[in-house]
Amino acid sequence: MSTATTMKSIGLHGHWGFSSAFDFVEAIANGNTSAQELPSELNILLVSPGDIRHILCTISKLCRNRGKDTPMPKVNFFLLESPIEVLARELVLLELFCDFELPVRQRATVFLEAFGNLKVQRRTNAYLELLSQRLRTLMSKGDGVLENVLDFSHLGYREKDFLEAAFKNYDRSVEMDMDGWFDHRKRGLFEERYDNRKALFDWDYHTGVKARASIVHIKQFKHWRETGIAYEFGDQEYVEPNKSMMTFAEGFLKSGRDKGLKKEVMGYWGDIVCSPYFAFGVDCETSNKHAEGLFEIYNKGTGSEQHRHHAVEVALYQLFSFMWELETSALYSMTRANDVYSGLGKASTASQGDPLPMDMTDEANTTASGAADKKEAAKEIDKADDSDEPVLVVDEDKESTEKAAAVAPATSQPTTDVSEQEAVVARALDTVEHLLNHLEHVRIYPMTTPPSKAEKKGASSTSQDNATSDSNESNSAIAQLLGKQKYQGFFHGVFVSARYAQLVNYKVLSDILVPTSTSGIAPVVAVETAKFLVSLSSDVKRDFTAKIDEFASQKQHFHKIHPVLRRRRDEQDPDDDVFFYST
Fold first, then answer.
1. Average pLDDT over residues 191-196
2. Is 245:267 a contact under the CB 8 Å cutoff?
3. N or C: lower Cβ tally within 10 Å for the chain?
4. Which long-range contacts (CB under 8 A, 24 or more apart) does 368-372 make?
């Protein structure tokens, strides 16, 4: 597959990553097992990660990375993204994630809706506009929820103006034809095969997804490929454009007096082949056997295997875990099998600041009723074997309980128990304490590359036919930015996305790492592989992997390490989605 065709499929701009989240502090700690302790302050660079999954994973687990007498490390993230609209999107998602006035369940569903759907609900569109206004206020007045977290000092005046303009595009008065843009991209990719696109969706799933992430259901994958909607909850209607997906690209006028001149083109220039499921939905940390059950497969070895759950449920569980641990300093644990929401209503029994061990299981919950539930689930799976629909098992006992609870207020007096009210206030104050304890140790510095030559003339770049030269120019721009003196010997950890993996071939990558001889800490470099790039063949993916290893070992003199567990949830899956290196 040519570079131009690849860029037509994964897009010029990244709205999500192609690897699972990991804790960067854990990676650095495990990569330096011989060190007495980590530095009190860690600088981590994220090069075009596509989203904020690594930031969320790291900050939620900060309390784990300390002993009883060891202070929590301070972590500085340098979030380097291009174009500026993608950077704005990630900041809006961060603002959403940290909007602690919203309940965890609602916040997680809205986050996934804004993260992976081309169109959103009307109320979500209004909410995203509100978040963008908060960020504009934060930029201009320094007042907001993230005032002590976000630092815009690594952006120039011009970049700040561009960022504010990107936030203004979230206004509901700005019209965007997401359906038309998405269809335009599909027609450009499939060309004369457009009418047979559903068969091509099926082919891509079986050749590029199933062997590596079979928990992504074929129905969900094909639905996203056709509509751009990845995360659906209940009977909600997704009718308004997701403004965070819009970016500008360089086009050429095809007619008129100015034919042939470059012009900025508003559109959807992101991924239309791989899907947003790989960032949050194919793997997660599991705190007990109920969570591990999210990856349970029925009918193994029969040729009609089917997952008990699917990628949307895994993504929900992962976000619940991040939010819960950030707000309680304890692991989120499901209290019922096959119910990702079951841990939200329970009071935390873990000691604050002392998370539950990873392999702890709740034996009390594995009773005869759990076995009966499993048998009933198996019956439903058997009935659904001939269907393409994702299987969702409804808990009738839970539904009846919720219905009774909904009716109860009409027939009972509201509680006036003072002790209960005091307990609610105490839990709220406890949550605020944990939030402040985490966020005061985190600083995020948004960064972007200098404008290209076209941008300096008033246009930005998106010619699909010049994909190779655009990619080289982007890598050069990043190398030029990181080549500044203030970044030399500065970073303890670096993440490089698959889109910019060629950066491993640049000398500047080793120049910006802290020297082991003076710091006593070996820096960690994480490089995203092509494992989940669906549009690439297996041979191309192997060549891609070989090139990364060649650049890392011969150009940078890195050696490969395995500081973070990368699970292979599918038996046919032999590859890692991220390679880790150290000096």
1. 94
2. no
3. N
4. 370/337
The two tokens of residue 245 are: 């997906």
Residue 163: which residues within 8 A CB-CB, separation 6 or more?
84, 87, 88, 139, 152, 155, 446, 448
**How far apart are the two ends of the chain, measured CA to CA in Å?**
34
Residue-wise pLDDT tens digits, 451-465: 554 333 333 334 444
Q: Where are the alpha helices (DSSP H) in 117-207?
A: 122-141, 157-168, 178-190, 197-204
**Predicted confidence (pLDDT) per residue in 541-570, tens digit:** 999 999 999 999 988 889 999 998 887 777
Q: What is the DSSP letter of 215?
A: T
DSSP run (H or E) holding 567: none
**Is the distance from CB of 580 to CB of 562 less than 8 angstroms?**
yes
Helices (H), 329-390: 368-384
**Residue labelled with tokens 């696109």:** 197
Nearest one of 3, 4, 13, 15 to 188, comparing CA atoms: 4
Q: Cα–Cα distance between 300 and 297 in angstroms, integer?
A: 7
**Backbone angle region of 41, left / alpha / beta, with phi > 0 → left and psi within -120 to 50 → alpha:** beta
Angle at CA 581, nearest 5°, toward 576 and 583? 170
Extract the tokens encoding 527: 């490089």
Neighbouring CB atoms inside 10 A of 501's CB total: 21
* Residue ranges with strand state E in 427-492: 442-447
Q: Considering all CA atoms of the chain, what is the largest pairwise distance in Å, rounded to the nearest integer?
A: 77
Cα–Cα distance measured from residue 138 to residue 146, given in angstroms and rounded to the nearest whole number: 8
**Measured distance CA(504)–CA(550) in Å, rounded:** 9
Q: Provide mean pLDDT across the span 54-76.
A: 82
| Structure token pair of residue 346 | 């329970």
DSSP letter at 205 equals I
CA dihedral 32, 519, 37, 42 (to 10 degrees): -90
Give the separation between CA 342 and CA 337, rounded to whole angstroms: 8
Two tokens at 485? Answer: 């003196």
Confidence at residue 258, expressed as pLDDT on a 0 to 100 scale: 78
Tokens of 137: 């206020």
